[in-house]
Amino acid sequence: MDKYTLRRQLKAARNAFRPAERRHAARAALRLALRHGLLLRAQRIGFYLPQGGEFDAHPLINQALCMQRACYLPMLPRRGRMMRFGRLGRATQMTKNRYGIPEPIDANPLRARQLDLLLMPLVGFDREGHRLGMGGGYYDATLAFMRHRRVWRKPRLVGLAYECQRVDALPHEPWDMPLDAVLTERRLHRFNSAR
């Protein structure tokens, strides 16, 4: 199946969740993250604010802030696709980017390589850790530096998704960066690339 058809089907599956089911799934994922120590070893964590049916990262963000982790959100560039990450806190001023997504106002944003852990939205994932995104290429461009690393990889890449977004195999390109893990409402899927 081509990416366009897969994207349409998987978005429909995740959009079928009612608000109460979304909240329940997000709380279940938080419990799994705590059980597996997902937030323990990371000091600088990149998150996202969910849009259009994406898995709700808010409980994880709130937990990380309570654990006094430095939390960051993606900031789109004026040109190109290389995102930076702005610090998120209780009093962070936000602005909307060109897609209407809130992002922090931060004069000194981090590069992805400065994060320990990056939690990413996705449309679909497979048993090998390949990720199907929205198709904009922002995460691919931002994480391109990781393709050249063989042993030490930072940040650790973890997708957030509903279990229904898992498929056997996704079409992927040489520049796609596989995930280390995907956290769903049911389990933490770890992949061969995971350390």
Provide structural commentary.
With 195 residues, the chain is α/β, with parallel strands linked by helices. The protein has one domain: NagB/RpiA/CoA transferase-like (Rossmann fold, 3-Layer(aba) Sandwich), CATH 3.40.50. 23% of the residues lie in helices and 22% in strands. It is built from four helices and twelve strands. The protein has helices at 3-15, 19-35, 58-66, 138-142; strands at residues 44-46, 70-75, 84-88, 94-96, 102-104, 117-121, 124-126, 131-132, 156-160, 166-167, 181-183, 188-190. A seven-stranded mixed sheet has the order 3-2-1-6-9-11-12, with helices on one face. The chain has a three-stranded mixed sheet with strand order 8-7-10, with helices on one face. It is globular and about 45 Å long. The relative contact order is 0.19. The model has no long low-confidence stretch (mean pLDDT 93).
Order of helices and strands: HHEHEEEEEEEHEEEE
**How many domains make up the 3D coordinates?**
1
Per the principal axes of the C-alpha atoms, what is the gross shape? globular
Amount of helix: 10-25%
- The radius of gyration over CA amounts to 16 Å
Tally of individual helices: 4
Q: Strands of the largest sheet, in order across it?
A: 3-2-1-6-9-11-12
Question: What about the largest sheet?
Answer: 7 strands, mixed
The CATH homologous superfamily is called: NagB/RpiA/CoA transferase-like
What name does the CATH topology carry? Rossmann fold
What is the rounded distance between the termini? 30 Å
Q: What structural category do the secondary elements indicate?
A: alpha/beta
Q: Can you tell me the CATH class? A: Alpha Beta
CATH architecture descriptor text: 3-Layer(aba) Sandwich
Number of E strands: 12
Proportion of residues in extended strands:
15-25%
The pLDDT mean sits at 93
Model regions low in confidence, pLDDT < 50 over at least 5 residues: none
